[in-house]
Amino acid sequence: MVHLLSFAALASAAFVSVTATPTRRAMAVAEQRTVPITFASAGKPAADTTLDLRIALKQKDMEGLEKALFDVSTPSSSLYGQHLSLEQVAAFAAPTEQSVNAVTQWLQENGVADITPSGPFNDWISFSVSASKADELFDTNFEDFVHIESGERFVRTLQYSIPQDLVQHIDLVHPTTTFVKPLVQRPVMSVPVPGTANVTERALGAPSSCNSVVTPACLQSLYGIPTTRATQSSNKLGVSGFIDQFAQTADLRTFLANLRPDLSSTTTFTVQSVDGGVNTQSARQAGIEANLDIQYTVGVATGVPTIFITVGDNNADGVNGFIDIINALNAESAPPQVLTTSYGFDEPDLGSALATRVCNAYMTLGARGVSILFASGDGGVSGGQSQSCTTFIPAFPGGCPFHTSVGATQGVNEVAADFSSGGFSNVFARPSYQSGAVTTYLNALGNTNSGKFNPSGRAFPDIAAQGVNVEIVDGGSAGLVAGTSCSSPIFASVVSLINDRLIAAGKPVLGFLNPFLYANPQAFFDITSGSNPGCNTNGFPARAGWDPVTGLGTPNFAAMLTAAGL
């Protein structure tokens, strides 16, 4: 059992009378920004509008946790594979008693009563106040903002302050300056068209039909993925679901009957709910993204128990449940060993403080032996989605160093898909595990795109997989989809199959992947053609070795097994 601070006891200890007017504390600006061009101010909310806010408390020792993460994730380390327990992670990630006391006392002094701990380590304080009270507390001006394209409205502010004497205890207040665009369904479905593209076949001998329609059989041929069933019931593969995208069991049955006839058509997945998420079953409720993600995990990671984690609309974390799903998994004693997500944002949407906090949540989960994979995005160098820009826009969480970013390829000869998002973070520094590979690329790149990206930032993606003309079944009909949304579940399936064999051999699972990946570039098919245009440029070119379009390349299952010591 994790021993965390008792907020009830602390609140009682910190209680002071709120009948008297508290002394105004000196304030310090915590964050500020301008209105993003995709949003417009819509005036002041009513003074009594209720705002659900969260304060992210400073965590005890995230530098220590980062060292521990790399110790257990770097193959050359004597601690490799000795993943941390929930209790061990909590010792790093929980706030200090001093921080809890100080922030709780300040809130109570100002008449805030409903103070609730949240997060797996009680590292957030949640509370609700009126808009007028929030203005007073944070020396700010909350406003209504509207997302111009969708019409969705948010209450946010462009600047807020916190007491100077609490700066050492508070990472951020949220949601305040975060302006995330509504999540959208990435892949677009089209009807399969007969015929094949004129593309050269690759050495592993996938049939030329795979140039036009990608199926599980194509992936098995291209990457050497086995069809034999996994054997370890403790090995779990998690699939994130958002924005009311529902994975259909009927569509999965049809998919398996058509494209994996060697598997029982009754093979299915389990469902886990976060924030009241559901998984409604009907052809009308079919979700292209959800069906894609489930069909290319259940249908590729043969026999691996798969969990569809559906995040509902009942979230107040300001980022569509991205915080809540990681908090939910972090609170579990045995979370799935692999998690794939095919959604994301642009890095500037979150701001550096929130991006860092979410990224650190991935660190806590990775330290426990969870491989976290995200689709890199579909906007080339212009971000998660194609958009106008003058300088390159990093996707999020692409720039986070504690997850694995997956780009896209196409064709049997595997060239870079032109939409594959990649580039360099403006928030996160380049981690040591990729320093050599990225330096080599930048030296070869020379002055190309100079001034349009941050060459010292964390570079992404890390690896890639097929992402064009991928066949799925949706609403009872077969069709083709494209996007890095295809690539992440495919690579996640490969990792899960390797984990199955590791567990069977009595070895630890791969866990946080990146140090292992960059230490073993020979375990991937290097992609040397294509680019990811955007921002009125040709983007970055793919080339020998790592590149910011396809990363280290696509999986070679046999070589990855060897690298894993199997």
UniProtKB/TrEMBL annotation:
Q: Which SUPFAM superfamilies match?
A: Protease propeptides/inhibitors, Subtilisin-like
Cite the binding residues for Ca(2+). Answer: 526-527, 545, 547
**Active site residues of this protein:** 289 (charge relay system), 293 (charge relay system), 485 (charge relay system)
Extract the InterPro entries matched here.
Peptidase_S8/S53_dom_sf, S53_propep, Sedolisin_dom, Tripeptidyl-peptidase_I
Please name the Pfam families in this protein's record.
Pro-kuma_activ
Transmembrane regions listed in the UniProt entry: none
Where it sits in the cell: the answer is:
Secreted, Extracellular space
Which protein, by its recorded name, is this? tripeptidyl-peptidase II
Q: Which organism is it from?
A: Tetrapyrgos nigripes
